[in-house]
Amino acid sequence: MIKLTVIDRDDSAQEIEIPEGINLNLMEVLKASEYNILATCGGMALCATCHVQVLEGLNQLPEPQDAELDMLDTLPDATSESRLACQLKVNEQLEGIVIKIRGDIL
């Protein structure tokens, strides 16, 4: 199991466990876990509504690709710790990370 901590917009924290080997991205897992994520573009890095801030473990994640960086550049509240959850594949690199949900809400 891959364990990570999710801090919601109200600052409530919850550890979630994700089975290894599932072919999902972090946005899909957050939606399935009933977090309020719009995911308007369906995971194509076109809307930034799955914006998360990586509070711990940023250095263990893969570097963002150009499409993700371009979308993050459009966000007024993006920081160097910002990522799009749709661009983070669920794998062992997510083990132990702590993220805070930042994207737009419904």
Automatic annotation (TrEMBL):
PANTHER family: FERREDOXIN-2, MITOCHONDRIAL (PTHR23426:SF65), FERREDOXIN/ADRENODOXIN (PTHR23426). Its cofactor is [2Fe-2S] cluster. GO terms for molecular function: 2 iron, 2 sulfur cluster binding; electron transfer activity; metal ion binding. Belongs to the adrenodoxin/putidaredoxin family. GO terms for biological process: P450-containing electron transport chain. Residues 2-105 form the 2Fe-2S ferredoxin-type domain. Pfam families: Fer2. Keywords: 2Fe-2S, Iron, Iron-sulfur, Metal-binding. This is 2Fe-2S iron-sulfur cluster binding domain-containing protein.
